[in-house]
Design a protein that fits this description.
The chain is an all-alpha fold. The protein is built from three helices and no strands.
Length: about 90
């Protein structure tokens, strides 16, 4: 444990940030799984889940929790999957 008061505060802040970032990353993974499952099942709420997932991923990238390119990659894969599913149904 550090001896300097400001460093002690920094350690505390970094732990709080780490927990907040973990929560957001977990939320992203959960929504991606839900969206993929809805797309596979061809349910009506797949489009709604897709927009929510994209929003969550964008917010995480904006806050610096995930890299912007990682956010773009995740969104691209979900969109590609969605368009493939709709094309297969037609």
């Amino acid at each position: 444990m550090p001896n300097i008061k400001s460093v002690v505060k920094d350690v505390k802040k970094s732990r709080e940030r780490r927990l907040r970032n973990q929560d957001t990353k977990s939320k992203i993974k959960t929504f991606v799984k839900k969206t993929k499952a809805a797309q596979d099942a061809s349910t009506e709420n797949a489009a709604i889940l897709l927009t929510e997932t994209v929003s969550i991923v964008d917010k995480a990238a904006k806050r610096g929790i995930i890299h912007p390119n990682a956010a773009a990659r995740r969104k691209s894969r979900l969109m590609k999957r969605a368009s493939f599913k709709t094309a297969a149904q037609a």
